[in-house]
Amino acid sequence: MSLLHRISVLAVCAAAALASACAANPPSPSGDGKQFVVGYSQSNNAEPYRAQLNLQLQYFVKQHPDLKLLPITDAHQDSAVQVSQVQNFVQQKVDALIVSPNEPAPLAAAVEQACAANIPVIVLDRSVHTDCYSAFIGGDNYLIGKLAGEAAVEALPNGGNVVELQGILSDQPQIDRAKGFRDAIAGRNISITAQQEAKWLKTNATAIMQQWLARGDKIDLVYAHNDDMALGAQLAIQGAGKAGAIPIIGIDGLAIPTGGIRAVQNGQLLTTFVYPTCAEQAVDTLVKILRKQPYEKTQILPTTRVTKENAAQLYQEYDMSGKIGG
C-alpha cells in the first residue's frame, strides 16, 4: 500500500469515527469542542418543588456533554446570601447563569452585574426588578390563583370562610396567586378570614394552622400557595382530629410520592395545580442562547388542575423517577 493510499484510508476512517462520535454526542454550541460552564443559584433547596427542579435541571444538562453545571448553590431563603452566590458565579466568569430568585428586589443588582459581564442570565419562576436578563421562564400565577379560587367556589357553593397560607410576601408568584384567587371568589359570599406568610414551608404552615384551629374560628377551606404548605396545614388538621373535614387547595402538583398529585389521589388535598419546574425549558433555552439561535425571552408555561379523576394520568405524564431516581 502506497503512502498516499494509507493516508486516504486513515482519512476515511477518521471521518467515519468523527461521524459516529457526532451521532453519539451533540456538537458544542461553538462547534470547537468547548465545554460551557453554567452556574445555578437556587433560592431554597428545602422546598420540594425546588429540590425537584434541581434534580431535573441536572438531568437535562447531562444530555448535553458540552455543558458543565457547577454545584447548585442554596441561598436558604436569605437574599443576601444569594446575592453573594450570584456574584461569586460572575467572578468565576461562568458562561451562563440560571437564577431562581428568593426575592425580586435584592437580586436585581447582582443580575445586572452578570449582564454587565456579558453573562447570559435565565431567571426561573420568580421575577427580578431588572430587565437585564436573557430569558424568564415561569407559570401564569395569576391564572393559577384564579383557577384555585374557582375551585373554592365549587367546594363552597353556599359561601364560607377561607384561610390563606401565603408564600414570601414580596415574591411575584405569591402576589399573583393571591390576587387571582380573590378575583375569582369576589361576590361569591366567600371570605378570607385569616392570612399569613408561611414562606412556602411545610413546618411554618403547620404551626400557623395549629394556631388558627386553636382559636376555634369556623374554617371551611384552606388555600395554600404551594403544596408543601397545604400538606403542612393537613398535618395540623389531622392532629386536631379533623382529617378530611376541611378541604385544602394547593399549588405545584409534583409527580413524586410526597407531592401534590399523590395527595389529591389519597384525599389529603381537594385539588392542586401543576406548576412546571421549568428545568427542561431552561436547558433548551440555555443551549439556544449559547448557540446564538432564536429563543423567546419570556416563556409562560401552562398549568393543569389535578383531580382524583386525572391524577393517575398526570402522575404518569410528569413522573421523572425513572430518569432522576426517587
Automatic annotation (TrEMBL):
Family: Belongs to the bacterial solute-binding protein 2 family.
Species whose genome carries this gene: Nocardia pulmonis
Source domain of life: Bacteria
UniProt entry keywords in alphabetical sequence: Signal
Main localization category: other
InterPro entries cross-referenced by the UniProt entry: Peripla_BP_I (IPR028082), SBP_2_dom (IPR025997)
GO molecular function, one term: carbohydrate binding
PANTHER family xref list: D-ALLOSE-BINDING PERIPLASMIC PROTEIN-RELATED
Locations listed in the record: Cell envelope
Name of the protein in question: Substrate-binding domain-containing protein
GO cellular component, one term: cell envelope
Signal peptide span: 1-23
